[in-house]
Amino acid sequence: MTASVGKNLFYQSLFQGIKILMPIVTIPIISKALGAHGIGIYSFTNSIAEYFILLSGLGITLYGNREIAMVREDKKKLDQTFSELVSLKLMTTAVSFILYSVVVLVFLHRDFLYYIIQSLHIIAVLFDISWFFMGIEDFKKVSLSNLAVQTVVFFGIVFFIKDYNDLPLYLLLQALGNLFSQVVMWVFIYKKISFHFVPIKKMIRHLFPMIAYFFPQIAVIFYTTLSKTILGVLDSQTSVGIYTNTLNLSTIIITMISTINLVMLPKMSNLFSKNKIDEINKTLHSLIHAQLFISIPAAFGVSALAATLVPWFFGNDFEALKIFIPIIAPVIIIMPIGIAISNQYLLPSGNTRIYAISTFGGAAISIVLNFTLIPIIGVVGSVLTSLIVETFVTVFRLIYLNKKTQFTFDKNLILRIVASATVMVLMIVVTTNGMNATFVTTLVQIVVGVISYAGCSTALKVPFLKDLFVVLKGKLYQSKRYKVKN
Asked: Which residues form the signal peptide (predicted)?
């Protein structure tokens, strides 16, 4: 791992780590204050806005990241590319905002205030230049600026969200937090870029390549956000709230595990441009197995903790999550693999076709299953649909990867990881059997789980734990040398 990748991973991990810690405090507050119905209203109205947020961005996060990475060593081309992409995004955001306004005014009279607040997320897309900093591999500014804004939002939720009547304020905090986190990044851009508006002809050259990245994202929205929309229409907004919280824990963990995928995208794009195939294959193999070292025990652990975690963490409205969380837990293992394949192989190599086919296939399955299962079994239908769709997407990408690179899983290593995770679960069950559903119980379970998994992994000679200690030891040594010199 190079110094730049290590530094970027540190800042992204810091940001994502705090993003994980914050919900540990805010999810119980929000769940108990707003209840399943309040969370359902937020999630349903946000799901409508998401379609227009997607249209505003038009695939620029991945496309812009890649384009900037390719020209970052040429200042003139860098200025030109940045100006063209921002100018194009101004146009797409304006179109998207107008369409959203028409849809809300004509069709969505209920909860009108909430839709107005959600429109701020669309405006935020206009100011989002995180793709630029990712392309030049400067994750520090993106991470720290986002962290500062999210901290303000965090304290806003802690101090001001008390009951269901605070739902509009909660939506406003989320929307303004998103908007300001994008705006603040412009403070850092003027030293790096000379921005100028460009003629339509020059910006349009990016339109069709961006659309190639945009269409797969449409499919992703169809098999994620669309589930909330369909559930809200066919069932109720309360069901949407239950479904949303079912996904919350797994989504937070997946986000943390997948942080390295975002950091490694520019590096992998660069390796593909230099045709370093052996290094690409080696990196991808190591990355996926390192993720499994974390994701497998995480999935096992979430399932083991559900019964004692749900009552105190989510509140009385969410008792059903004791059953739903173990059902959805396998996606913690499945999704990071699919994300790694797309971000570290398909997209850097410019192979958007397989990426698109997998996501559109997932979208088609999602639509069919949601419309079939939700009328029959409600929220359970949405949960099962999410699991089935994510499995399809990842398996499809794996099959393609195997054909192109002869990628194979290290079955012996995975077996040792599963054995360690199984021991971890048994230790959790045995040591905390009969304890009440409280924060203390969950904390004890986590400590027992981490110690038992680490111990068993070491005994079975799972290499990643040893590598982690070596890295930490090296960082500590460097830190001590720095202090001595200074």
From this structure: none
